[in-house]
Amino acid sequence: MAGARAFGFKGCRKIGGSQIRNLLNAKDFFLFDCDGVIWHGEKAIIGAPKVVSSLIKHGKNVFFVTNNCTRPRENYVNKFYRLGFTDVMQEQIFSSSYCSALYLRDVAKVQGKVYVIGGEGVRNELLQAGIPFVGDEDAPDGTIFNCALASDVKAVLVGHDDKFTFLKLAKASCYLRDPDCLFLATDVDPWHPLQDGRILPGSGCLTSALEVATGRKAMVIGKPSPFMFECISSQFRVDPAQCLMVGDRLETDMLFGANCGLDTMLTLTGISQMKTAQEYRDSDHSANQSFVPDYVVDTIADFLPAFED
Amino acid sequence: MAVSKCTRLNGPLIKQMLDSVDSVLFDCDGVIWRGDQAIPGAPDVINLLKKNGKNVFFVTNNSTKTRKMYADKLALMGFNATEDEVFGTAYCSAMYLKNVSRLQGKVYLIGSNAMRQELEKVGIQQTGVGPDPISGVQIDWANVPLDPEVKAVVVGFDEHFSYMKLNRALQYLNNPDCLLVGTNTDTRLPLEGGKAVPGTGCILKAVETAAQRQAQTVGKPNHFMYDCVASQFSLDRTRCLMVGDRLDTDILLGSNCGLKTLLTLTGVSTVADAEAHQESGCPKRLGMVPDYYVESIAELLPALQG
Questions:
Q1: Which of A43, A186, A224, B54 is most buried, taking the most CB atoms under 10 A from its CB?
Q2: What does UniProt list as catalytic (chain A) (predicted)?
Q3: Is B143 an 8 Å CB contact of chain A?
Q4: pTM of the model
Q5: Domains in chain A: how many in total?
Q6: A209 close to B (CB below 8 A)
């Protein structure tokens, strides 16, 4: 399908058997989203741990690229181990919270404090990167009518925050009145599914509220922004042509892959459905092509037969 | 129909314009007061307009006060005004739900006590107003108990807005038959004392993002606020003037309803903003060009006193 690819038309093909084997042979780097791809909540997807360890055993480079900013990486390693992914090391895990800290430290080189709307996942990563921050639960007597602002805040970072309050929104928008104060978002996902299929509001809701308050657009760290791939590339020698991005959400994972020039695979164990991918493929808007995966599998466990030889 | 010209109103033009209208609709914040300070001369303008036989109404997107609270504030500041001349979004949202949505059921409310009171006045019960601190873990939040009588989520200004409230709204809105109504989309809310905080627009955007759908909004520039006034008083829209400080709410409402429009410069928008819309040539933006503008409504005084 090289000709069609040249025009930007993606295959959206469900593949199996020898097609998967050929693909696995052709690629050296496998980037996996986590939720809905290798696990659902606290349950590994059947076959997923074996897929990951087989890839590693076959000398492939495996990375995990997740917008989930609720845990620090050292915590993620524990989860991987607990769910049976025993070969995964911290260095392979790229979360939006970790990458936000990298951005602030290495790209923006922020001099001053960061005002954080977020939980332990984000704060811990900032701590580990040596970045001073404020945002601990508000002074009990602070109100929207007279909230005390910290001095020397040079960036605002918004992530998933179940302790979000209107006061935090008000404080953040005060800081962002200074055009030199950076405005970062870990990700813009509008909602997240839980194990049982119910959903919860995502970071995207809090970010959009702050964008409306300030009239400014946040710099997005997580997928579909390509920044997390730049983080991986800065630490490992990665050739985009050798990569396969595997995810379950068309608007984040597939778009991320397209933005980074990677081949993409949709697995149907998570959020997006084949029908939606086909609708994007068949739509008149050329921009929708970026949501379309190159390949589709029912589950990444479909890789397993390819390792038997 | 007059072409919006953005004309500086002065001299004999003021009296000419006033003679051509019977009713004047005023926005509040930035027009007749700033926080708790009346714009100098504003009370006299309103009182003289009434003395000259004009109808005067107050049309505000602010959802934090009931009509009665607004009437009290107006009286305190020297404006001769009655409760039924005030149209705030707390009141108008209740009217919208009752008369347009014909809501049969309860409301999950993200909003103020004023909104609760106005809803109760039209016989609509609500759940959710007030602080709502988070407890438990994710699975608890996704499974919050839902009141089966709730048929709409209504969003206004709420200083207690939190992740938990956002979550509850999302859980109700998972039902596609549950309505989503917002009081307004203003990005900032002016407070007493001249400060400003993020407005209802921010809260509404958070809810719309989570639920992946657009709210029906009641406030300016939606024509409903004008319809509300017109349904209670007989108005000839060709003899109505809308006075406001925001091009994207007040002036646009006026244009949408075929009213004459007057921009006052004591609030948010500037003449440069108006001229930019005028020069854009974009049909959507032309509705934001006022017919006239003044530095302050106090400039109407000489014509009213004379």
A1: A186
A2: 33, 35
A3: yes
A4: 0.95
A5: 2
A6: yes
User: For residue A249, which phi and psi values (nearest 5 degrees)?
Assistant: -125, 115
Q: Which secondary-structure segment (H or E) carries A296? A: strand A295-297
Cα atoms in the 13 Å half-sphere on the side-chain side of A77 = 9
DSSP string spanning B105-150?
SEEEEES-HHHHHHHHHTT--EE--S-----S-HHHHHT----TTE
Cα–Cα distances (Å) from B233 to B24, B45, B97, B236, in that order, read 12, 21, 20, 10
For residue A205, what is the nearest residue in chain B, using CA coordinates?
A: B206
**Model confidence pLDDT, tens digit, residues B167-220:** 999 999 999 999 999 999 999 888 776 678 999 999 999 999 999 999 999 999
How far off is chain A from B91, nearest CA to CA, in Å? 23
Residues A232 and A246 in one domain: yes
**pLDDT-derived band at A136, boundaries 50, 70, 90:** low
Contact of B195 with chain A, judged by CB distance below 8 Å, is answered with yes
Determine the Cα–Cα distance for residues A136 and A151; give it in Å rounded to an integer: 15
> Cα-atom radius of gyration of chain A, to the nearest Å?
20
- Min Cα distance B49 → chain A (Å) is 35
Return the closest-CA partner of residue B207 out of B269, B272, B267, B163: B163
CA angle (B111, B219, B268) in 5-degree steps: 100
The pLDDT of residue B35 is 87
Average per-residue pLDDT in chain B?
95
For the record, the structure tokens of A173 come out as 């928008």
**Which residues fall within 8 angstroms of residue B100, CB to CB, at 6 or more apart?**
B224
pLDDT tens digits, one per residue of B33-45: 998 899 999 999 9
Tokens of A199: 């959903």
Q: What is the CATH number of the domain that holds A290?
A: 3.40.50.1000
User: Do B142 and A164 count as a contact with CB atoms less than 8 A apart?
Assistant: no
